User: Fold this.
Amino acid sequence: MFIVPKFLPGADGTPGERNDVTLAGLNHKMGYRGVTNCLLNFGEGTHFRPQGEAGAIGYRVGELHRGLACMFHMMNEARISVGLGAAMLGYTGYLHALDYARNRPQGRPLTAAGKSADAAQVKIIEHADVRRMLLAQKAYAEGALGLSLYCARLVDEERNAADARARERAALLLEILTPIAKSWPSQWCLAANDLAIQVHGGYGYTRDYKVEQFYRDNRLNPIHEGTHGIQAQDLLGRKVVMKDGAALQLLAETALATVARAAATDTLATSGAQLGSALEEIGKVTQTLWSAGDPQRTLANASVYLEAFGHVVLAWIWLEQALVAQAALEHATSEEETHFYRGKLQACQYFYRWELPRIGPQLALLASLDTTTLDMPERCF
Ligand SMILES: Cc1cc2nc3c(=O)[nH]c(=O)nc-3n(C[C@H](O)[C@H](O)[C@H](O)COP(=O)(O)OP(=O)(O)OC[C@H]3O[C@@H](n4cnc5c(N)ncnc54)[C@H](O)[C@@H]3O)c2cc1C
Assistant:
């Protein structure tokens, strides 16, 4: 099976040539099976030999030496879209797991009454461990969606804000947030899909329920449009040091404004203080890593840096959501609204108590400039 596209005429008007581009076949993928993905081979000389030799002719589009800049312009929006796609899969998996947990009877409560053989079974949502899995999914999916929407707003502001300073500010924030917007939802909403399967128990592993498909579909997201490792190098190697650290500084100032608003409340001041220290720690570890004097050492554990940084950004996004929820709760006009805002506050609390503390050991490892991975001799694997 092969295709041979006829190329457009060249800039000088010469007719297009038949080039040797072969469709070698379809890739058989783990997920996204409704979307075909093909393998193209260029210039093997099997069917056509342009200018008498094996090869394919490429035509430059746009200005010389501007290709990488153009590619990154396109890639940045593509990366935010990947993050949003991951968030949507995480969210839908959560909603399926929630529905299942509300309907599946299994086990009895751990109370004295529950020990009786005659006691009725409860719905699995009543078990603390199932609630843990649901809360984690909610925290990942709604956090990721919040970050994706914030970045989408920045994309609009970067283009359309009336004031030039606001456009520059949005552009700078987008620079530093894009690797997080791409990688955090891809990692943690995949983890959410994993938990959605777990909530379904054995059924989650079968095709009777959709959660196994969500997991398979989401597994692509840490890979395409720049793998996790590449986003990590982009963040630590370029974004936090660009323009003498201006993007990092702006992000910290923006998040600290949220901390200041939280400090003025009774309920969210503690979380705000926790975020304030996490931001300070990220700043310190960034300096330590760049003081190594050897880029290979600085970047050796970049993916750990990306993950710790991502959790701090998401802690900020959750605090923003909680501040809105806290204010709105006081004016809620229905039970449904009250439940919605209380759910947001509880998910924020989950994030601060269960998730943000994960960065402690990660930052300690980074600060030690550990070289275990670099030092492992290749032949010893
Ligand atoms: C379903 C699907 C659809 C796709 N669609 C498209 C498409 O439409 N258009 C398109 O252009 N591409 C497409 N891709 C390709 C996709 O963008 C790449 O697979 C992806 O960018 C990873 O590149 P790679 O496969 O060459 O892996 P590699 O670059 O070989 O990476 C392999 C591993 O090595 C790590 N690694 C590589 N280099 C470094 C480094 N310098 N430092 C540290 N770690 C490193 C990576 O993080 C990864 O873990 C698609 C891929 C898939 C699976």
Q: What stands out?
A: The chain has three domains: 1-59, 70-224, 227-368. The chain is about 60% helix and 5% strand. Confidence is low (pLDDT under 50) at residues 1-11. The first strand starts at residue 21 and ends at 26.
